[in-house]
Amino acid sequence: MEPSDSNFTTNSGSDTKSRKRDYEEVTIQWLKAPTPAAELKRSKQNDEAPPKSNESASHFQLVKEFSFYINHLKNYPKDCLRPNTLNFRQMLFRDLLKGSNQNPERDLQVAFMTTFGYEMDLLEPILKAKCHLTIANDMDQNYRGPMVQKGYYGYPNCTLIYPPKDASRNFMGAFHPKLWLLKFPEFLRVVISSGNLTVGDWTVWSNCMWIHDCKPKKKGEEAKKRSEEESKEFDRDKDFEEYLKFYVQAIMPKGNKYQELLKIDLDDYVFENIDIVLVGSLPGRFMGKEMLRYGHPRLLDVLGHPSHRMTNQGKPKVLVYQTTSIGALSPDYFKEFLASLRVNGWKVTDCIKGRGKAAKAGGAEAAALLNKSVYVIYPTRSYIQEESIGPEFSGCLLLASKNWDKDTFPKKSFSKYEGKEDYAFSHGAIPHLKVFVVCNEDFSVDDDTIIYYGSHNFSPAAWGKYEKDCTQTVSYTHLTLPTIYSV
After folding, report:
1. How far apart are CA 83 and CA 406, in angstroms?
2. Which end of the chain is more exposed for a tag (fewer CB within 10 A), N or C?
3. What pLDDT is stored for residue 4 in this prediction?
4. Contact (Cβ atoms closer than 8 angstroms) between residue 98 and residue 39
């Protein structure tokens, strides 16, 4: 086990010509796809029947088959791509696979995209295709302009919004979710990823996506009634719908309804066959039941439901976490996190000083026990300098020397990041995805395995941390992510 040994703060970048090629490869081709009218005209010229209105049936089967994807990096050979690999352009089309190698219909009507930074070169093709685009972006601490900018960048169909932050603190936090709502004529696509709206995120950095398409409600359609047996289970469909509606409204600038700004109404769609649970973070301090709505206390609440409890609670578990930005980690924070995951006997009361299992075990003994329960996967200096695409692209990796040098920093929990041996094209990639797996000590998975996939970095700022003897939490970051609980 070799710790990551440097402070990764180098800004990413590349020469102008190569960046121009990246833009063209990822998005400019989207403009060349025919509109539905052009598709119909061409089919008549070829004496073919026009596309049928139920063509999306095969599409829904496709997305149901795969929910989780990784992005197609520019060094991946096209003839070696796996079915769960997508590029940015593909996600903008009704049929994910046709978007990669054919000329599909360009029928995306409305898009809402959240991000921590963006490049208009990536987004302009969407705007030129007459799609209504709303971008929710992180706001600089010194910004004093309007929270809603309609007609942004000279496009009447573009709106830029800044989600609210707590201006009462010196550090207002960061807006860091990557949530997309893509409205097509026949369905709404929900995308939750780890990638920002920059070219580097989709061509150079490795990212992950969860994708689910929701059919529109029929007139007068009501939610399906659950049987008595089903009502005992955690209702993922209902929880997802309610949490998504709440979260989308929560990130709107004050005084604005999301339906009016985004031109999307989530009440118009059916949320079914959901295989994840959403966990969000908002900046602020929270108490009581509200505390259980965000960050790692939300995990504690959801995993406490009888249908999510582990079948073998006494079996030792380990947390394996791949992250890109690391904050002030410590054995005490590991304790908080493991308590929320309800593993290895850790409880919230153990997080109160002088109480619980940690106090009985003693400081050094407890710290050693916690460090053995957590593995943090992170690239080393040598990997970035010698094996990756280059240090100039490592701007997404942040690990401050002041944190690393602390006596309490859990260096022994760190493991080297490497590419998969059976897919050599991944070696040298710079990871920007955030993934954790709670599995058995031998790293095997079973029905008790917990998997997280999204945009939370492993830090108190992202997940929140306890205050006032665990009666209050504080977090500094807007985040939303999917989590699944069994394999």
Report:
1. 43
2. N
3. 41
4. no
Specify whether the CB–CB gap between 473 and 351 falls below 8 A: no
CA separation for the pair 44, 36 (Å, rounded): 12
Contact at 8 Å (CB) between 195 and 209?
A: yes
Query: Per this entry, what is the length of the chain?
Result: 487
Residue 98's Cα: distance from chain center in Å? 24
Phi first, then psi: give them for residue 325, nearest 5 degrees: -120, 125
Which of 208, 133, 138 lies closest to 435, judged by CA?
208
Q: What is the pLDDT at residue 79?
A: 76
Three-class SS state of 45: helix
Question: What are the structure tokens assigned to 332, written together?
Answer: 């005490």
Q: What digits encode the pLDDT tens for the residues 414-425?
A: 999 987 766 667
Cβ atoms 477, 173 nearer than 8 A? yes
**For residues 300 and 304, what is the distance between their CA atoms, to the nearest angstrom?**
6
Angle at CA of residue 270, ends 268 and 272, nearest 5°: 160
For residue 263, what are the CA distances in angstroms to 137, 221, 370?
18, 21, 47
**Cα–Cα distance for residue pair 283/174, rounded to 1 Å:** 8
Mention every residue, 6+ apart, whose C-beta is less than 8 A from residue 97. 62, 90
Structure token digits, residue 116: 């921590």
The pLDDT of residue 179 is above 50: yes
* Model confidence pLDDT, tens digit, residues 182-219: 999 999 999 999 999 999 999 889 999 999 999 999 88
Whether the Cβ atoms of residue 52 and residue 61 lie closer than 8 Å to each other: no
Q: Directed axis angle between helix 16-26 and helix 120-128, to 10°?
A: 30
| Helix axes 331-341 and 295-303, enclosed angle (nearest 10) | 40
Cα first-last separation, the chain: 27
Report the distance separating Cα 13 and Cα 200, nearest Å.
Answer: 8
> 306: exposed, middle or buried (C-beta count within 10 Å: 0-12, 13-18, 19+)?
exposed
**Cα–Cα distance list, 386 to 71, 380, 382, 389, 390 (Å):** 23, 10, 6, 8, 8
* 479 Cβ neighbours under 8 A, 6+ residues apart: 176, 177, 280, 281, 454, 455, 456, 462
Distance CA 30, CA 106 (A): 8
| pLDDT mean over 448-464 | 91
What is the rounded distance in angstroms from the CA atom of residue 171 to the CA atom of residue 130? 38
Q: Is 210 left (phi over 0), alpha (psi -120 to 50) or beta?
A: beta
Give pTM, 2 decimals.
Answer: 0.85
pLDDT tens digits for 52-93?
Answer: 334 444 455 445 556 889 898 887 877 777 788 889 999 999
**Residue spans of beta strands (DSSP E) within 144-186:** 148-150, 158-161, 174-175, 179-184
Span 260-316, pLDDT tens digits: 999 999 999 999 999 899 999 888 888 999 999 999 999 999 999 988 878 777 789
Determine the residue type at 152: Y
